[in-house]
């Protein structure tokens, strides 16, 4: 089967982390911004470990300075996703990088991103929805500003709120105020947990932030009672196998727990996270799962049904895509 054209839904994609290196390098030249250290000699993003990855990620965002830059970024990202058969994508959007958490600025960035999304939908048949994300290592006070941006712009398109960044910075519960604000504005919730820290972190995410999806969450495999609790609560995992292998959470795909988690009965979905950083795309993710775990067409169909059912979009959008 040809995986490239197989219709896919992707729920976990950071828009800046999906930036083609050429776009970032081109913007750096145009604006004369020095981003030394972001790329290796071959023009790939260069980092050694997770914390350096976060630094390089943030350094690359320094060239994304205007709504027009985000319009170009969004188009480039969606073009790449559509080329890999993605028909529905949820992207993490960061008011922290789009105007520093200022609401008026954020509105302008969001407008530009949505213009690009409309164009991509018309021209490439890919549907994008936005999930505002706060950055954990920027701290709870900054997250409140981010949550306010999210709450003030929440609608059918801007439909979720989440948190990424360094999982070792503070506790999930430190961000409860922001997640409560987002929930009250009607936003659906997800947070990165169980990528670096163990099962206890996922337990805290569900208990303290009341999220319905978890970004990564793979380390719950270390606590089967928790896996069963998550099944009972219908929590869905946004699993990013290529990301986990590239960042060293697992040494190789064969050691990744996605198959064990699926067998146990927890709902898993598959995404790329930050594709150029991890030298991956949705085609490669599917090819890997087929090769290593012998997933077949029916498995991938079921995977996408799970993803669409867990998508934060409204039912009319879901029905149109399914
Ligand atoms: N931001 C972008 N990618 C991330 C990841 N894999 N974990 C946490 N924060 C992120
Ligand atoms: Zn992520």
UniProtKB/TrEMBL annotation:
InterPro entries xref list: A_deaminase_dom (IPR001365), Ado/ade_deaminase (IPR006330), Metal_Hydrolase (IPR032466)
Record keywords: Hydrolase, Metal-binding, Zinc
Cofactor: Zn(2+)
Residue span(s) of domain Adenosine deaminase: 7-322
Pfam families: A_deaminase
Keyword Cell division part of the UniProt annotation: no
Gene Ontology molecular function: any one: hydrolase activity, acting on carbon-nitrogen (but not peptide) bonds, in cyclic amidines
Family the UniProt entry places it in: Belongs to the metallo-dependent hydrolases superfamily. Adenosine and AMP deaminases family.
Protein name as it appears in the record: Adenosine deaminase
Organism of derivation: Marinovum algicola
